[in-house]
């Protein structure tokens, strides 16, 4: 990337982080902007927009061809981030745009595990309805169902098919 391209991408990251749709559209007209570029932490403009709950900015980036499956330096994707944070509308958008449901991060975690762990039950349901694999185990041997049990998340426990518990 040339110095001017790097500067343009810095502007793209900043516009995405702020959800500045007008500036994103303007920057995306420049052929020196690399839409799927990753900064030092591995963040793309799409990851930054989604992590900060900017639905319209995420839509603009996806419409321009942003890859929803790129992962940051920790292996987290945009879908993992919104599953952790609870941004259901963005989760739906990413799924519609073919975000991989079962990508694993550096610890073997998935979006479904994040949603379960942090009590984002609407997203647990969205992911399961879309076909997320609840049988995946992270590198500690934990599945989403294990995490639901550990957290006492009865809603996720039921959604994930956990057995009825006796009182």
Task: Provide the descriptors you would attach to this structure in a database record.
0% strand, 10 helices, mainly alpha, 167 residues, 53% helix
How would you describe what is shown here?
- The protein has helices at 3-18, 21-28, 45-51, 55-63, 78-85, 88-96, 111-117, 121-130, 144-151, 154-159.
- By secondary structure, it is mainly α.
- The protein is elongated and about 60 Å long.
- The termini are far apart.
Give a quick summary of the entry.
With 167 residues, this protein is an all-alpha fold. Helices cover 53% and strands 0% of the residues.
Chart the SSEs and their pairings:
Blueprint: H1 3-18, H2 21-28, H3 45-51, H4 55-63, H5 78-85, H6 88-96, H7 111-117, H8 121-130, H9 144-151, H10 154-159
Q: Hey, roughly how much beta strand do the residues contain?
A: under 5%
Q: Termini distance? A: 61 Å
Label the overall shape: elongated
* Gyration radius, rounded: 17 Å
The succession of helices and strands, N to C, reads: HHHHHHHHHH
Counting H and I runs of at least 4 residues, what is the number of helices? 10
Mean pLDDT: 95
Question: Structural class of the helix and strand makeup?
Answer: mainly alpha
Major sheet: none
Low-confidence region ranges: none
**Proportion of helical residues:** 40-55%
The tally of strands reads 0
């Amino acid at each position: 990337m040339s110095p001017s391209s790097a500067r343009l991408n810095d502007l793209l990251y900043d516009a995405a982080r702020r959800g500045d749709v007008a500036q994103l559209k303007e920057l995306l007209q420049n052929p020196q902007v690399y839409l799927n570029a990753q900064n030092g932490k591995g963040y793309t403009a799409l990851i930054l927009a989604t992590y900060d709950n900017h639905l319209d900015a995420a839509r603009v980036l996806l419409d321009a061809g942003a890859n929803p499956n790129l992962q940051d330096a920790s292996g987290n994707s945009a879908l993992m981030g919104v599953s952790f944070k609870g941004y259901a509308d963005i989760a739906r958008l990413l799924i519609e745009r073919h975000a991989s449901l079962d990508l694993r991060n550096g610890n073997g975690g998935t979006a479904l595990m994040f949603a379960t762990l942090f009590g984002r039950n609407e997203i647990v349901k969205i992911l399961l309805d879309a076909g997320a694999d609840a049988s995946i185990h992270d590198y500690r041997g934990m599945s989403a169902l294990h995490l639901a049990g550990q957290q006492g998340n009865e809603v996720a426990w039921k959604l994930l098919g956990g057995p009825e518990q006796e009182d």
